[in-house]
Amino acid sequence: MPSRDDAQKLFIQAVLSRRYLSKKLTELLVGRCIAAVRAADDTLNINDNYDAFIISVNNALDPLDLELAFLHDEITGRQMCALVNRKGDELAQIATDYSPLEIAYFKALVERIMLAPNESYSVSSLAALRETAALKSSMTKTQAEIVLASFVAKGWLNKSPRGRYSLSTRTLLELQPYIRSTYADEVVECTVCFEIVTRGIGCFTANCKARLHDHCFANYRNSKHKCPACTADWSANEKRLLFVGEKAASAD
């Protein structure tokens, strides 16, 4: 017999089949899963409130150290959703797609990106290929290029027109526990939304820690003109704002 929990099970299966989806699609799936269970038994009392449904799903996932997590895409500003392993000591999220050597390569790239100077959070194509030299097993340049292309194609890395690699929204979302625990000193949070920033702007005042995503900054300056941290006047000095991300990178 159908039960109220069946809507949650259907939803989790739908998320697992997609892994990474927009909040808009998440809301659509919630509605369809509830409708499907109600169609099987219209006497069931199912709360169709979206927020309550997500909370109930996360309560069910909690014993498994899994969570439906949400994060805004740093480029588009759209809110995205993924099923995340909360254990921060492993790259379990990509283990099913890649070999141990390829995972080690990805881990090395993440480290190089997170430790990039000047909060540039990116690495050149040449520097990315050089990371293979530190791997315990050999990987040829051709193999590395193929793996890099796969990381981009599957949404784990972004590659810019300049040929620089950076962390994608999927990586920031699905591997957030790993990134936050491993690179606690390097992680920078947006002063407005408190999510991780790897591209955006920073305050020009010395020692001011204010950093904003581009989309957060665009919304913020519509009504406010001073730094949210140090209150420096940004309206007259917008050109002095610092870059976070690829625009802050020097040649490497």
From TrEMBL:
<dbReference type="InterPro" id="IPR013083">
    <property type="entry name" value="Znf_RING/FYVE/PHD"/>
</dbReference>
<keyword id="KW-0539">Nucleus</keyword>
<keyword id="KW-0234">DNA repair</keyword>
<comment type="similarity">
    <text>Belongs to the NSE1 family.</text>
</comment>
<dbReference type="GO" id="GO:0000724">
    <property type="term" value="P:double-strand break repair via homologous recombination"/>
</dbReference>
<comment type="subunit">
    <text>Component of the Smc5-Smc6 complex.</text>
</comment>
<comment type="function">
    <text>Acts in a DNA repair pathway for removal of UV-induced DNA damage that is distinct from classical nucleotide excision repair and in repair of ionizing radiation damage. Functions in homologous recombination repair of DNA double strand breaks and in recovery of stalled replication forks.</text>
</comment>
<keyword id="KW-0233">DNA recombination</keyword>
<keyword id="KW-0863">Zinc-finger</keyword>
<dbReference type="InterPro" id="IPR011513">
    <property type="entry name" value="Nse1"/>
</dbReference>
<keyword id="KW-0479">Metal-binding</keyword>
<feature type="domain" description="RING-type">
    <location>
        <begin position="190"/>
        <end position="231"/>
    </location>
</feature>
<dbReference type="Pfam" id="PF08746">
    <property type="entry name" value="zf-RING-like"/>
</dbReference>
<dbReference type="GO" id="GO:0061630">
    <property type="term" value="F:ubiquitin protein ligase activity"/>
</dbReference>
<dbReference type="InterPro" id="IPR036388">
    <property type="entry name" value="WH-like_DNA-bd_sf"/>
</dbReference>
<protein>
    <recommendedName>
        <fullName>Non-structural maintenance of chromosomes element 1 homolog</fullName>
        <ecNumber>2.3.2.27</ecNumber>
    </recommendedName>
</protein>
<keyword id="KW-0808">Transferase</keyword>
<keyword id="KW-0833">Ubl conjugation pathway</keyword>
<keyword id="KW-0862">Zinc</keyword>
<keyword id="KW-0227">DNA damage</keyword>
<dbReference type="GO" id="GO:0008270">
    <property type="term" value="F:zinc ion binding"/>
</dbReference>
<dbReference type="GO" id="GO:0030915">
    <property type="term" value="C:Smc5-Smc6 complex"/>
</dbReference>
<dbReference type="Pfam" id="PF07574">
    <property type="entry name" value="SMC_Nse1"/>
</dbReference>
<dbReference type="InterPro" id="IPR001841">
    <property type="entry name" value="Znf_RING"/>
</dbReference>
<dbReference type="GO" id="GO:0005634">
    <property type="term" value="C:nucleus"/>
</dbReference>
<dbReference type="InterPro" id="IPR014857">
    <property type="entry name" value="Nse1_RING_C4HC3-type"/>
</dbReference>
